[in-house]
Amino acid sequence: MLKMKFIPVIVLIILSIAARGQQFKPNAQLLKTIEANFKKGSSQYELMMKSLEPGRFPKTFDAKNNKLVTSDSGWWCSGFYPGTLLELYAKTKDTALLKEADRMLTLLEKEQYNKTTHDLGFMMYCSFGTALKLDPKPAYQEILINSAKSLCTRFDPKVGCIKSWNGQKNEFLVIIDNMMNLELLFWATRATGDSSYYKIAVTHANTTMKNHFRTDYSSYHVINYNPETGKVQKKQTAQGYADESAWARGQAWGLYGYTLMYRETRDQKYLDQASHIASFILNHPNLPADKIPYWDFNAPNIPDALRDASAGAIISSALFELAQYASAKEAKVYFSAAEQMLKSLSAAPYQSLPGTNAGFLLQHSVGHLPQKSEVDVPLSYADYYYVEAMERYTMKTKY
Ligand code: GLY
Known about the structure:
399 residues, mainly alpha, Glycosyltransferase, 3-stranded antiparallel sheet, globular
């Protein structure tokens, strides 16, 4: 009799495990749109490469002056253009894109030794990491290992974090965005068998989980630690509306970051964290019906505040992955929200018209509004995560 009592519990456990990793049925119409978008994406990026000056990387488009705005290889976004080219090439087999990606990778290579930035994950994993998946060249592997080594030089065991911004002597600044750079470290442990990269990633994620989040699971942007004691000195939101506001892209980085933490470690606490962040975003009263967030969830002029397409693209991509790990009930919510985001981004006003926007796929992102920089513009990372979300929607992604 006692054993019989446990049968429903056992059935429930089996059902809930079976529900994880489930496949959803993509919408046939949206799949068609996405197929067309990949083709359009190839043409758009062919257009972009024509106006790119030698040695430069695309950042955004200055519509007023009809000019592609660019950076050198040291800018945190330099990996997104080659990464997007490679993702589009993987879909369309347009060899012009591959040739251009190879050219850009050569320009980017030297950043493997850059110890002045925490953004090496963005710069090197989104580019060389994508290249390695398409073509497992030992040279790419070596570049990525050196990049991981450079990134680890910024880790401080007293604070338990990788340093983000290079602040004053008496501060150790860590931003939520830094969660995205941990993917490179997990890869490095798998590639080398050296667990120190893994340990640094886990320590950074745990410290961030402890200090960056509010009780509602929204996050601050910047935590200022005392470099001597590791104690928190200040909590701020530099790129958002106010220190206590929820800057949209910061929430997106956190969601994506803890989803990847679960993928890499299978530690339940990271899945719980990602689910809490997803709840904050998806249940927020200021999330619009098309599910593309305002640039800050607490922007003062909602509903007239600017949207941030980049946050929409990052959240969409993260939710498609999170849906693979969540319970059946949550997974349904995540998948359908991510699908709505993808649908919205694939239409006006976010989707650019062919032959316009200097080749960028998306419009209406916000880079750094308080600094009046990159406001309501296309951005290379909005395109990168949009293409990734589209790829994930086709259900062929191996995590
Ligand atoms: N600092 C990276 C971002 O603007 O999201």
